[in-house]
Amino acid sequence: MPVTCRNSDLVLDVRDTTPATEDIVNKYDTFLDALCPERYAFQRDAIKAALRFLVSAVYPDTRALAVDNYERNERLRGRYATLADYLATFPLADRRSVSLDLATGTGKSWVLYGLARILLAEGLVDKVLVLCPSLTIEDGLKEKFLQLGADPNLKAILQELGAIHAGADVKSADTDILPGDICVENIHAVYERTGSSIENSFKGKGGRTLVLNDEAHHIFSKADSATKRWLEFLANPDYGFRYMIHVSGTPYIGDDYFTDVVYRYGLKQAIEARVVKQIDYKLDQLVGRDAGLQETWHNHLLNRERLAGRVKPITIIVTEKIAACVRVWGEVVEFIADKEGIGRDEAEKRV
After folding, report:
1. Which of 177, 189, 93, 94 has the alpha carbon at shortest distance from 128?
2. Which of 92, 145, 160, 165 could form a disulfide with 180 if both were Cys (CB 3.0 to 4.6 A apart)?
3. At 214, which helix (H) or strand (E)?
4. pLDDT tens column, 138-172
5. Among 342, 341, 339, 137, which Cα is nearest to 248's?
6. Strand order in the sheet with 170-171
7. pLDDT at 313
8. How far is the C-alpha of 271 from the C-alpha of 42, rounded, in Å?
9. What is the distance between the alpha carbons of residues 172 and 131, in angstroms, rounded to a whole number?
10. What's the average model confidence in pLDDT over 258-264?
């Protein structure tokens, strides 16, 4: 009978402490100390957990890591009746492909950048491809990478360690990606034929490329056909990508937690450590649409009065899906038009 597992029960243990692996994992401690402030020690731990797997001779691929954990972890055996059932949850089992669960707001950009620079420095890969689901995230990653790349201490430390690639140019896919480069792109660019160098720069070179996927829950989502193409790109034998790290603050496929996570720093941990702020969720105690909107509208008016002359208050309503968002938007427009005695056009401008 299947048993209930906590997310922490599913985290994979990379049990490789051989001298060859330890030498590489610990070699970059000084670099990680300079990159990640003491308060963010978990970033160093996340980077080292991923690095340990990527350089391990004990685990040639994710399948080997999964098999080892299944044999050692009683909880896994209780949740998955057979090893075959368990392995079926790994879509990229024949690669070195694992995930990091890092709560939103904990600095995933530092982790991605640290992994990119270390693998280039070690010479394990020649190029790094960083993929994300939107232009907004792409711009944020580029800005952070350029900021970190401008730190002369980080480059100096890597040079002292004998880095193969001590520096790293941050580029987009509108130019050729050369050895030592980090390419940051939104996933939609990989499907473009015009103006994109993805195919020319990475086709047939995946064995020497590190792929870092941000907001990785989009990759494995069953609801979006566009994200299905993301997974197909990663698995495409024409590219032959070998090294892949997926990072997400919500590593779930539906209600199921990712099974390939090798490090977890959850929201509760982040809040308790004051790395991110406590979130005060509004609990609806009123029943019905009009009652809920009435309360929200009333609170908005109070905020507008309280903050008059200082800041314009904004009330945000979050829905699960886009279709629901469109429906709720229409309901709010009707409510505001009726409540404030204004026309629909004016109400639409306010919502």
Report:
1. 177
2. 165
3. strand 209-214
4. 999 999 999 999 999 999 999 999 999 998 999 99
5. 137
6. 170-171, 182-186, 127-132, 209-214, 243-248, 96-102, 261-265
7. 83
8. 13
9. 11
10. 96
In which region does residue 280 sit, left (phi positive, over 0), alpha (psi from -120 to 50) or beta (all else)? Answer: beta
Q: Using one digit for the tens of pLDDT, what is the confidence trace for 276-312?
A: 776 555 554 444 556 678 888 888 888 888 888 888 8
3-state secondary structure of 86: helix
Q: Which residues are CB-neighbours of 151 under 8 A, at least 6 positions away?
A: 34
The rounded mean pLDDT for the chain is 90
Other CB atoms within a 10 A radius of the CB of residue 230 amount to 22
For residue range 167-215, list pLDDT tens digits in order. Answer: 899 999 989 999 999 999 999 888 876 668 899 999 999 999 999 999 9
The residues pairing with 129 across neighbouring beta strands, listed in sequence order, are: 183, 211
Give 245's strand partners: 98, 212
CB atoms < 10 A from the CB of 336, how many? 21
* Token output for 328: 């709720």
- Specify the pLDDT at position 285: 47
User: Which phi and psi angles does 210 have, rounded to 5°?
Assistant: -100, 125
Q: Please enumerate in sequence order all residues whose Cβ is within 8 A of that of 185, keeping only pairs 6 or more positions apart, or say none.
A: 129, 130, 131, 132, 138, 172, 173, 198
What is the C-alpha to C-alpha distance for residues 320 and 224, in angstroms, rounded to an integer? 14
Query: Which uninterrupted H or E stretch holds 227?
Result: helix 225-235
In this structure, are residues 88 and 82 in contact, taking their beta carbons and an 8 Å threshold?
A: no
Q: Which two tokens stand for residue 236?
A: 């495409």
Q: What is the pTM of this model?
A: 0.81
- Give the percent of the chain with pLDDT over 70: 92
Query: What mean pLDDT comes out for the span 318-330?
Result: 86
List all residues 6 or more positions away from 160 whose beta carbon is below 8 Å from its beta carbon. none
Exposure b/e, 111-140, CB count within 10 A at least 16 = b: bbbbbbbbbbbbebbbbbbbbbbeeebbee
Query: Among 19, 111, 12, 101, which Cα is nearest to 62's?
Result: 12
Give dist(CA 145, CA 211) in Å, integer. Answer: 15
The structure tokens 């629909």 sit at: 344
